[in-house]
Design goal:
Largest sheet: 4 strands, parallel
Number of strands: 6
Number of helices: 6
Order of helices and strands: EHEHEEHHHEEH
Strand order of the largest sheet: 5-2-1-6
Radius of gyration: 18 Å
Distance between the termini: 44 Å
Shape: globular
Strand content: 15-25%
Structural class: alpha/beta
Helix content: 25-40%
Length: about 160
C-alpha cells in the first residue's frame, strides 16, 4: 500500500528545495498572470505539493508597468480600502494606481488569489514585483519562465487548436 506524501517543513533534513523564477509581465493579462504566480507561490506545480506546508518557489515579476487588463477595466476598475471609521472608504482608480505604483496592482491581484491565513502571509513574502526590467535578485540565479507556461485566452486556444 502506498502512503500519501507529505512535504517536511523547511528546517528538516528532507526539507523543501526552492527555486527562483522570473516572470516578464509585458503584455500579459493581469488575472491570468496572477493566477499562475499564485500557483507557483503555493507550489502546486510540483509533485511534492502539500497544502499546509510552504513548498512553493520565489517569484520575481519584472515589467509590472506593462501588464494589461481586458475590456473597459483600464478606465473603470476601482480599488477600495476602508480605514475602519465611519465614512473612511477610500477609492483609487486602476489608471491612477498604474501611473503611481504599478507593482502594487500585481501584488494585490496575487494576494487576492491566495487563501487568507497565516500561510498566505508567509507565501506573499516570496513575491517580488518590480515596475521596470531590472531586479536585484541575479545572485539567486533565477530562471526565466517562458510565456508558454501561462494559460491562453479562449480565442488563442481556438486559434492554436484549429
Amino acid at each position: 500500500m502506498q502512503k500519501t506524501f507529505m512535504a517536511k517543513p523547511e528546517g528538516h533534513k528532507d526539507g523543501i528545495t526552492r527555486n527562483w523564477v522570473v516572470i516578464d509581465a509585458t503584455d500579459m493579462v493581469l488575472g491570468r498572470l496572477s493566477a499562475r504566480i499564485a500557483q507557483i507561490l503555493l507550489g502546486k506545480h510540483k509533485p511534492t505539493y502539500t497544502p499546509h506546508v510552504d513548498c512553493g518557489d520565489f517569484v520575481v515579476v519584472i515589467n509590472a508597468e506593462k501588464v494589461r487588463v481586458t475590456g473597459k477595466k483600464a478606465e473603470q476598475k476601482k480599488y477600495y480600502k476602508h480605514s475602519g471609521y465611519p465614512g473612511g472608504l477610500k477609492t483609487t482608480l486602476y489608471k491612477d494606481l498604474k501611473a503611481t505604483r504599478p507593482e502594487k496592482i500585481v501584488e494585490m491581484a496575487v494576494w487576492r488569489m491566495l487563501k487568507h491565513n497565516r500561510l498566505n502571509n508567509q507565501l506573499i513574502r516570496h513575491l517580488n514585483v518590480y515596475a521596470g526590467s531590472e531586479h536585484p535578485h541575479t545572485a539567486q540565479q533565477p530562471v526565466l519562465l517562458a510565456p508558454e507556461a501561462f494559460p491562453l485566452s479562449m480565442s488563442q486556444t481556438a486559434a492554436v487548436s484549429a
